[in-house]
Specification:
Layout lengths: L10 H32 L3 E5 L5 E4 L1 H7 L3 H4 L4 H4 L6 H10 L10 E7 L5 E13 L2 E10 L1 H15 L9 H18 L3 E8 L2 H8 L1 H18 L5 E6 L2 E7 L3 H14 L4 E3 L2 E3 L3 E8 L6 H17 L5 E3 L3 H16 L8 E10 L5 E12 L3 E3 L1 H11 L2 H21 L7 E4 L10 H11 L7 E6 H21 L2 E7 L6 H6 L4 E4 L1 H5 L5 H16 L3 E5 L4 H9 L4 E3 L9 H8 L12
Parallel strand pairs: 11-12, 14-16, 16-17, 17-18, 18-19, 19-20, 20-21
Antiparallel strand pairs: 1-2, 1-5, 3-4, 4-5, 6-8, 6-11, 7-8, 9-10, 13-14, 13-21, 14-15
Helix pairs in contact: 8-9, 12-13, 14-15, 15-16
């Protein structure tokens, strides 16, 4: 007889197997359901289950947290009832889905506005998927709060196109705006003006007041520019203390009015941290189409014009002129050639003696820097010194001058010259050096030259512009025995107040005053006043640029005993100085003329 599988097992075993199988299926289904529920509950994104009519049938904890509604409040409602605007774009696509059964939005990410229970609105992203369940579709809505993402996008936009300190458009945005404005001007055959602005002496403000106050000055300055703008103009901060104003439809007349308005508003000081800070600007102006037809050329030309305004003393504006390109090219060539001048032995010193009129003896020597460039020929100090200062090269050059002059004076003293001070000019920029005092004293020590045989010449403007920092360094050097002279005296402040504060030994009357002694009575009066003032302050005086016997006679008459100038000696090379003034005859008097 043929037996089946069932015939070979007792009936209770068959039933038991069936029960176990059913139980296993149930447990599996239960576990899957529990897993799904666990995922729904623990998800960090808002998840809502919707029936085919669009009513909420599940609302997870993340949804409660985002919207501010409890689950029991949300169940049975539609998304339009309380989460989204009834008349917004959300209504349109939800109606298409739940009313017209248009599933074209299924699986797509849609950005929209959502509402919390307190009425506040936040940006959100929603994605809806569908799943068949018991012959019907169940929809799952995944919603993510985009608030932080939008903040990040705004921050990225801010960083990319706006200056963080001032809030003005930065260089990137300015370039785009400039191209657009220029294209519009070309298309409609209109004019356009570009103003390039620089904050005068901003480095000095930073160095003396600190970077925090420097930043506040830039913020105040940018606010003033924004308030001064004519209609449709745009101001931008390019970098540092450089700003530009893009002036659509601007012509020569209106650009001048705009510049004058800014300069006039800067007459009042900025009130910052309880102090008055006076700020001025230099403004260069270029015009489209006469000064260029592309952004790079117009910007370059406005920049060049700004430097010309700065050369006039600042607080001025200047229009671009064709010859400025030649000047700028020359300036660039000088700056580049100057960088290798020391290595190629193009820099050298000339020496001009200072004399005591009654005895005719040398009372000092001034070391004068000169530059003979292989490429540019002889370059005047009036041309290359400002370039060296602005490019920062004056620091290294100034150290070289000091070292070379001290070596030379040590050599002359060793050869038997009666010791006199050797004078060198110190730039205002050099006073920003933290180690200036140490550097000077180290060079004196290396060359075994006593400090009293070094004289530093500094201009009046440098003294006033460096204030406390300058004063501290000068006093430190004075305590070591270094002599201090005020160069170009009579052309700047000429104030008794600062002469009382600084450790000054000598006043050098500027050659421009000496030159006009016989022509202008006022200049003669200035010299007499300087002599009287120096006497009361116990300061020595030396007249510079003496070229005629008439000038010499006048100076003797008013009591000026020290002079320097072509009348007695032009600047000489070290070799010629030795031949002219070093005494090689043992019976001769030292320093004899």
């Amino acid at each position: 007889m043929h037996l089946t599988l069932i015939d070979s097992y007792p009936i209770y075993l068959i039933l038991l197997t069936f029960i176990i199988s059913i139980t296993a299926l149930y447990i599996s289904f239960t576990n899957q359901t529990a897993l799904k529920a666990s995922l729904l509950e623990s998800a960090i994104d808002c998840i809502m289950l919707l029936n085919s009519s669009g009513k909420i049938i599940a609302f997870n904890p993340a949804a409660e947290a985002i919207f501010g509604y409890e689950r029991k409040e949300a169940l049975g409602l539609t998304l339009i009832d309380f989460l989204f605007e009834k008349d917004g774009q959300e209504t349109t696509f939800l109606n298409l889905l739940f009313t017209a059964k248009d599933e074209t939005i299924i699986g797509k990410r849609i950005e929209l506005k959502a509402f919390r229970s307190d009425g506040s609105v936040f940006p959100a992203e929603i994605t809806i998927t569908s799943t068949p369940y018991k012959g019907k579709l169940v929809y799952t809505a995944y919603l993510r709060d985009l608030t932080e993402k939008k903040k990040s996008e705004v921050m990225i936009q801010q960083l990319a196109y706006f200056d963080l300190l001032t809030g003005l458009p930065n260089r990137n945005q300015f370039n785009q705006l400039f191209h657009d404005a220029l294209n519009n001007a070309k298309q409609h055959k209109q004019s356009l003006a570009l103003l390039f602005l620089d904050v005068n002496r901003f480095k000095h403000i930073n160095d003396t007041l600190g970077h925090h106050l420097g930043d506040l000055v830039l913020q105040k300055f940018s606010a003033l520019l924004s308030e001064s703008l004519f209609a449709q103009s745009i101001v931008s901060r390019l970098s540092g203390d450089e700003f530009v104003i893009l002036f659509p439809f601007g012509n020569r007349k209106s650009a001048a009015v705009q510049a004058e308005k800014i300069i006039q508003q800067l007459e009042a000081p900025f009130q910052i941290d309880g102090r008055n800070i006076f700020v001025s600007t230099s403004i260069g102006i270029s015009l489209y189409p006469i000064d260029g037809e592309d952004p790079e050329v117009l910007l370059k030309n406005a920049d060049q014009a700004m430097y010309r305004a700065k050369e006039r003393g600042g607080n001025h504006y200047h229009f671009y002129e064709q010859e400025l390109s030649v000047i700028h090219s020359r300036r660039s060539a000088c700056e580049q050639s100057l960088r290798t001048a020391r290595e190629q032995n193009e820099l050298y010193l000339m020496y001009q003696p200072k004399f005591h009129i009654p005895t005719g003896t040398i009372i000092g020597v001034e070391a004068l820097l000169r530059w003979d460039s292989h490429e540019l020929g002889s370059v005047s100090p009036k041309e290359f010194i400002p370039i060296a200062e602005e490019s920062g090269q004056i620091i290294a050059i100034g150290k070289w001058v000091l070292q070379t002059a001290c070596v030379q004076m040590n050599k002359w003293q060793a050869a038997g010259m009666e010791p006199v001070p050797i004078a060198i000019n110190i730039s205002a920029v050099q006073f920003h050096q933290e180690d200036l005092v140490t550097m000077i004293l180290d060079i004196l020590h290396q060359n075994e030259l006593e400090a009293k045989y070094l004289e530093l010449e500094i201009t009046e403007s440098a003294l006033m512009n460096n204030s406390l920092s300058c004063m501290e360094k000068l006093y430190a050097l004075k305590r070591e025995g270094v002599k201090i002279s005020i160069d170009d005296f009579g052309t700047g402040y000429s104030s008794l107040s600062y002469l009382h504060k600084y450790p000054v030994d000598t006043l050098k009357i500027d050659k421009s005053i000496i030159k006009d002694i016989s022509t202008f009575i006022s200049d003669s009066s200035i010299i007499e006043a300087i002599m009287a003032m120096s006497y009361s302050l116990k300061l020595s005086v030396i007249a510079v640029g003496v070229e005629t016997h008439e000038q010499l006679t006048f100076l003797e008459r008013v009591g000026c005993q020290h002079i320097q100038g072509y009348l007695l000696s032009v600047p000489l090379t070290a070799e010629l100085f030795e031949k002219s003034y070093m005494i090689h005859d043992d019976n001769a008097s030292p320093n004899a003329l």
